[in-house]
Specification:
Blueprint (H helix, E strand, L loop, with lengths): L5 H133 L5 H16 L1
Length: about 160
């Protein structure tokens, strides 16, 4: 049978108390300190991650604003380029019209000059033909006065 003695219970209780105190001093306190330290490190890492996430959000917003600004600047540059190109187009068109007008005027003047030269040349040839024809008709009369009269009559009839 089992005997229970007072001393054995007392030693068991004292052993349990010593073990409890030893565990508390050597096991529970260091373990609690380690857990507290790890919890502190985890909290710091979490705060650092939140800080980095906030920084990343700020950078993202900053870049988005820069992109919006760049897009509006691109549109403005394109509008200015189009305006400048339209002005250049108008200048080139005006220069081309002016040049074409000048070429047309020069061509008309050249044609008029050529026409006058052709008419003058034709008059001289006609006058020579008249002189030759009158020489044959009149015969031996070769006076400058007769030639001049005949020429003037011919021009008067040709001009009508």
């Amino acid at each position: 049978m089992i005997q229970i003695s007072f001393w054995s219970i007392l030693f068991t209780v004292v052993n349990l108390l010593i073990l409890f105190i030893a565990f508390r001093i050597f096991f529970f306190k260091p373990l609690a300190n380690i857990i507290a330290q790890r919890q502190k490190e985890a909290d710091e890492l979490y705060e650092e991650a939140l800080s980095r996430q906030n920084d990343a959000e700020e950078l993202k917003n900053s870049y988005e604003q820069k992109l919006i600004g760049a897009e509006s600047e691109r549109k403005q540059i394109l509008a200015e380029a189009r305006k400048h190109a339209d002005g250049e187009y108008q200048n080139i068109l005006a220069d081309a019209k002016s040049e074409a007008s000048q070429i047309h005027k020069d061509a008309v003047a050249a044609a008029e000059h050529e026409k006058k030269e052709i008419i003058g040349s034709a008059r001289k040839e006609i006058a020579q033909l008249i002189v030759d024809a009158t020489t044959k008709v009149v015969g031996s009369k070769n006076s400058a006065e007769v030639d001049s009269d005949l020429y003037e009559q011919f021009l008067g009839k040709a001009g009508e």
